[in-house]
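Database export, one record per block. Field names are fixed; values are copied verbatim from the stored entry.
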Amino acid sequence: MRESKFLCIGWIPILLCSLLMLAVTLAFKWRHIELEVAASAEAILFNSEDNWATVETFNQGRNVILNGEAPSAEAAARAEKLASSAYGVRSAKYIGDVAVMPDLRDNASLENGNTNRSSTVTDASSDSDVAVQEIFPAQLLASSSGETITLSGELANQDEIDGLVAEASRIFGRENVISRLNVGDSVAPLLGAIFLSALKFDADTEAAIDLSVNGSDLQLTGNVPSESLSRELEQSMRERFAGKVSNQLTVSKPIIARDVCEGLVKQLLTDSKINFETGNAEISANSLTLLGRIVTTAKRCPDASFEVAGHTDNTGNANYNMTLSTKRAQSVVTYLVNQGLPATQFNANGYGPTKPIATNSTVQGRAQNRRIEFKLNN
């Protein structure tokens, strides 16, 4: 009896150590899943207009937290919805700040000059009943695309409008200037119009920029082809405009040729591979970073369409392998479409074990044959 009791007591440390090792393993795997979920959300946000948002997920599992400074409440909600659609993400919640945006009203009001406001207020602290006139900030929206510029908003007087149109005509040519400016009631003078010269680009420059002025606040929005042009525009505005300048420009990656695009995708798949959970078509979490890079590349190739081909080794039932390869190819296409790529850009096909690239007689060869390939459609 004593020997039996001793044996029972001796197993207790071993059991406790086993439980501790299991807990550490689960914690590590849980953190690994969190990192992959965060990478998936970061990839979809990076390739969108909401790339201002950062992703946090520590101790959140498949729920991600978004941080950063949202340009508006609408942008914060949009980022939450976009991140929630990322592969593996259960939900997304924005906890950062929302920037105080200039009161630009809606574009229709800017263009038509329809603004509902009171032109006078009563000075309640005064002993007399003299009305004190309220002065409103100038409102200007200048939209530039190549050789053309459109001006809209409310300025202080007709002389100021004429001067702004004359300045735009000198820079862009009168035939390329569209004016929808109006004289507003009790509007303060514009801080200056010399900043319009910074919006002039060569005809072949792929840039579309909106410059909005609300009193002493100037904001740049739109698309430019490079980060250097974005910084150059911001610096130019700061030198020409006396107030606050906010740069919200989006850098658009240049479009690349179809064959170059195919080569880039093939290189990504040579350096790494898309993995799946054993025996099914669920994409492994460790492949999400690779898929994010494929998404970024494919977005630069709008003219290229691909066949996504699934392949297996020859282990097991041939019909099962054919079905599995098709489902895995379709899973990849579904993921790409969920990241914002057009469904017409991809078609999925499964070839099972019929097109091996290595021998199936070795473990290494079978691993090479289990693969996803991207091929340009004719």
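Remark 1: Residues 183 and 229 are 33 Å apart (CA to CA).
Remark 2: The chain has a mean pLDDT of 78.
End of record.
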